[in-house]
Specification:
alpha/beta; Rossmann fold; four-stranded antiparallel sheet; 18 helices; 15% strand; elongated; binds adenosine-5'-triphosphate; binds magnesium ion; ATP hydrolysis activity
């Protein structure tokens, strides 16, 4: 057993006591400082606290050579997520996975791979042109004390990224590095983003924490131009037009035009207008904003919706002729009619009915398409669809607003071949000839043809059954069209006859009236003559 000399043991004991005391003193010192700090925060006048804080920061800045920049998730009105924050998030996703110890996981746009990003309160380093920088993700608590009943935990926490770097690199960081982060971040975001299908919220739901003017779901429509049944030449023309547009950033800048393009898709129901929009979005990898115009109260709201759309998107207004009365005269008529109806309602309901009315006007819509605001963001397609192009105001669809008018019409033989390939995987069949002839003779929409081609049984010769079904449907449609044409002809004939009869009757009546008048005229003349002779006799 080791023998410890008495003085040494005493010395060691003393040392232990000294270090024990020291920790105790340090602990109480820290507690004291914390207490003082709490008192300082609570009782010092606000202005004085700010003043002291300001000079403390100055002092620290004097001895501490590092600068920090923070990027809040929600800035300004807090209703819109800061784009810079999102870009940094994506940039760090790319850079942080190697160095950060705590990561968050999400799933990529194809739902196939995990996307890892830096978790909250984590720090990573980055290097740019040989300069070292530090990024950290933080939470800032801002409790809402004055109205505790409004307290929402999520509302009180603001997330932000903090960038720290040596002050001698200030110029490099603010001029080059931040742009580099933004560009890379945006590129990564585009790569990883899930495309979305948006629709507008009614404006009554626009206000409140994190409420948005657009609601969205993930866009997953499988339509492509390959599966779209239409004339191949026309299809290629549309594809070329779209691709040229999407690569035309510099060209549009050069010619001084906003980087957007309008498409008007028109044709009977079931000819593939909505399908084509999905194919466009899939071709260009764009988001889709489906505007429900009847839920937009006025032109200001329409503009707000436009501002909140992102670039690389298609803004769609379906059935534009039904969404609004866009020609002055029809609108006037409708208003008059509506007012009659509304007048019969009790007063509060009347007000409500007026409130609900969309007051979006033609000029509001024109401004939406090509006003000054329409240029913000860039790279946007605006697509209108309609079944009745003739009903639209010419101002709305003139070139420059709706640059390309695309007519989608009944199924042609070429279109049928694409459908047969899609639905039945058939390139040729002995019945193709008959179908081709029938398609030339009658009108059938691609939607109806597609329905006939959908296999309904899993038989030995399911393809032939489908094609025969189609032939039957085409023959029925042809027969119906013939009967309808006959009926219409009959009706037109009847109408002609009726109008001819009416004309005859009218002319007979006219003749009768004129002869009566004539007779009356003769009688009057005779009476006047008689009167004259009587007067002469009296004289
Ligand atoms: N040209 C086409 N190519 C491929 N499929 C088509 C085509 N046209 C229609 N279809 C099929 O028919 C269905 C209806 O088509 P879609 O909704 O695109 O028609 P629409 O022209 O938008 O009709 P509406 O005017 O009633 O809105 C789609 O689900 C699609 O499968
Ligand atoms: Mg449609």
């Amino acid at each position: 057993m080791e023998h410890i000399p008495a003085p040494a043991a005493h010395q060691r004991q003393g040392r232990m006591m000294v270090s024990g005391d020291m920790w105790a003193q340090l602990g109480s010192g820290i507690a004291g400082i914390m207490f003082m700090y709490a008192m300082f925060q609570q009782y010092f006048p606000r202005q004085l606290t700010g003043f002291i804080g300001f000079y403390t920061n100055k002092l620290v800045a004097f001895v501490y050579p590092y600068l920090t920049i923070s990027f809040d998730e929600y800035s300004g009105d807090r209703f819109k997520r800061n784009d810079v924050y999102s870009a940094i998030e994506s940039y760090l996703t790319f850079n942080s996975t190697m160095s950060a110890k705590r990561l968050k996981a999400d799933i990529d746009k194809n739902s196939k791979n995990f996307v890892l990003s830096m978790d909250d309160n984590e720090e990573v380093t980055d290097e740019f042109n040989g300069v070292k920088l530090w990024w950290s993700s933080n939470n800032r608590s801002t409790p809402t004390q004055s109205f505790p009943f409004y307290y929402a935990p999520s509302a009180s926490e603001r997330r932000f990224y903090k960038l720290t770097f040596h002050r001698r690199h200030r110029d490099l960081i603010t001029r080059s590095y931040l742009n580099h982060v933004l560009d890379h971040g945006k590129a990564v975001r585009l790569q990883n983003r899930q495309r979305k299908l948006f629709t507008n919220n009614p404006s009554s739901n626009w206000y409140g924490y994190k409420s948005t003017v657009w609601n969205h779901v993930v866009f997953e429509h499988p339509a492509t131009f390959d599966t779209l049944a239409m004339d191949p030449v026309k299809k290629q023309d549309i594809i070329d037009d779209l691709l040229t547009f999407s690569k035309g950033k510099d060209y549009y800048k050069k010619i001084g035009k906003a980087w957007k393009r309008g498409y008007l898709l028109y044709g009977p129901p079931g000819t593939g207008k909505s399908t084509m929009i999905a194919a466009m979005a899939n071709l260009l990898d764009y988001d889709v904003y489906d505007v429900e115009l009847t839920a937009v109260k006025n032109n200001t709201e329409l503009r707000k919706l436009l501002i909140e759309t992102s670039s690389k998107s298609i803004i769609v207004i379906e059935d534009i002729d039904c969404s609004l009365d866009l020609t002055g005269q029809r609108k006037k008529k409708k208003e008059e009619g509506d007012d009659d109806e509304k007048d019969r309602l009790p007063k509060p309901l009347k007000e409500e009915a007026r409130e609900k009315d969309s007051k979006v006007t033609l000029s509001g819509l024109l401004n939406f398409i090509d006003g000054l605001w329409s240029a913000c963001g860039g790279e946007r397609l605006i697509v209108f669809t309609t079944n009745h192009v003739e009903k639209l105001d010419p101002a709305l669809i003139r070139k420059g607003r709706m640059d390309k008018h695309i007519q989608l019409s009944y199924c042609s033989y070429e279109a049928f071949k694409i459908l047969a390939k899609n639905y039945l995987n058939l390139d040729s069949h002995r019945l193709f000839g008959t179908i081709g002839r029938l398609l030339e003779e009658t009108n059938m929409t691609p939607a109806d043809v597609a329905e006939c081609l959908m296999p309904k049984t899993i038989g030995v010769d399911a393809d032939t059954t489908c094609l025969e079904n189609l032939i039957n449907a085409l023959e029925t449609a042809k027969e119906e069209a013939r009967l309808k044409a006959e009926e219409e002809e009959e009706e037109a004939k009847k109408k002609d006859e009726a109008s001819a009869k009416e004309k005859d009757e009218a002319s007979a009546k006219e003749k009768e009236e004129s002869s009566i008048k004539e007779e009356n005229g003769i009688v009057v003349q005779e009476k006047e003559k008689e009167k004259e002779t009587n007067e002469k006799k009296q004289d």
